[in-house]
Amino acid sequence: QVQLVESGGGLVQAGGSLRLSCTASGSIFSADSMGWYRQAPGKQRELVATVTNSGRTRYADSVKGRFTISRDNAKRMVDLQMSSLKPEDTAVYYCSVRYYDSRAYWGQGTQVTVSS
């Protein structure tokens, strides 16, 4: 069992920045993909950004050019730098990890609120 702990959420004004961090309790060297997802009230959870073990990244169209995902296997961390935040970015953000053996885990989520 791997636990993921997110941090860095909070309240920010539109146009501001936040950095989310996620730390895994176990090794992520064999993690195929790590990523961030979000869920706004009344909406389904959606992909924000993912990064593979080879460093390939993928972003939702809505965050391209504003968000940057990074991964540090040695520190067991995946971060999400968010800039030029918009009110529509308001959501609970979840960290996830998927291993090559198909195990997958989710964090508890961290709230991000962007005021207009």
Keywords:
116 residues; 7-stranded mixed sheet; 11 strands; 55% strand
Explained architecture:
With 116 residues, the protein is mainly β. It has strands spanning 4-7, 10-13, 18-24, 31-39, 46-52, 57-59, 67-72, 77-82, 91-99, 104-106, 110-115. The strands form two sheets. Strands 2, 4, 5, 6, 9, 10 and 11 form a seven-stranded mixed β-sheet that branches. A hairpin with a 4-residue loop joins β5 and β6 (57-59). The protein is globular.
Helix content: under 10%
- Poorly predicted runs: none
In sequence order, what are the helices and strands, one letter per element? EEEEEEEEEEE
Shape category: globular
Span of the ends, CA to CA: 40 Å
Our Rg estimate from Cα atoms comes to 13 Å
Class by alpha and beta content:
mainly beta
Counting DSSP E segments of at least 2 residues, the number of strands comes to 11
Strand content is over 45%
Biggest beta-sheet profile: 7 strands, mixed
Mean pLDDT: 95
> Helical element count?
0
Question: Mind sketching the topology for me?
Answer:
Layout: E1 4-7, E2 10-13, E3 18-24, E4 31-39, E5 46-52, E6 57-59, E7 67-72, E8 77-82, E9 91-99, E10 104-106, E11 110-115
In a nutshell, what does this entry contain?
The chain is mainly beta and 116 residues long. The protein contains no helices and eleven strands.
